[in-house]
């Protein structure tokens, strides 16, 4: 019964059922492509907005001054050294480790993060009979960081 209605409609419009079906399929395909094109344009706009937001974030992060913080604590024979500061210029990790070496400290364990911010937590012990005080270690680490930042902060 449905086919006879379709036949009557197509006969009235001067088409045969096969061409009517093809026309319907073509319209659906074109509509589907149009919807995909709109979705793609929307995703491209969202991606561009995320890029702009990311760039704004990094620009802001580079402008703010993160205060440097150096904390040294002696626990038994070990020194726990915590450092955090902005990561502008230089290789702070190498500078801090060189300062440890100059003080006669061996790093037993360390955790480091070097992105836009530099942070490090290290456990160090004195080599042999050499002993450094908390104040000496703090001063040496601050000096190492300042030299790598060009003296600012």
Automatic annotation (TrEMBL):
PANTHER family given in the database record: TRANSCRIPTION FACTOR BHLH35-LIKE PROTEIN, TRANSCRIPTION FACTOR SCREAM2-RELATED
Localisation: Nucleus
Organism of this sequence: Hibiscus sabdariffa (roselle)
Annotated Pfam families: bHLH-TF_ACT-like_plant
InterPro entries: bHLH-TF_ACT-like_plant, TF_AMS/ICE1/BHLH6-like
Residue ranges of coiled coil: 33-60
Chain ranges of the Plant bHLH transcription factor ACT-like domain: 69-145
Name of this chain's protein: Plant bHLH transcription factor ACT-like domain-containing protein
Key words of the record: Coiled coil, DNA-binding, Nucleus
């Amino acid at each position: 019964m449905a086919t006879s209605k379709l036949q009557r409609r197509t006969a009235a419009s001067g088409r045969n059922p096969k061409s009517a079906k093809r026309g319907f399929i073509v319209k659906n395909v074109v509509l589907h492509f149009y919807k995909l094109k709109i979705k793609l344009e929307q995703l491209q706009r969202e991606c561009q907005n995320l890029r702009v937001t990311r760039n704004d974030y990094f620009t802001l992060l580079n402008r703010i001054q993160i205060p440097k913080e150096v904390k040294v604590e002696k626990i038994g024979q070990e020194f726990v050294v915590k450092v955090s500061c902005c990561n502008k210029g230089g290789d702070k990790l190498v500078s801090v480790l060189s300062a440890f070496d100059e003080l006669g400290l061996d790093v037993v364990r360390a955790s480091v993060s070097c992105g836009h911010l530099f942070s490090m937590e290290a456990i160090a012990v004195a080599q042999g009979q050499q002993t450094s005080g908390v104040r000496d270690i703090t001063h040496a680490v601050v000096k190492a960081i300042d030299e790598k930042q060009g003296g600012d902060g």
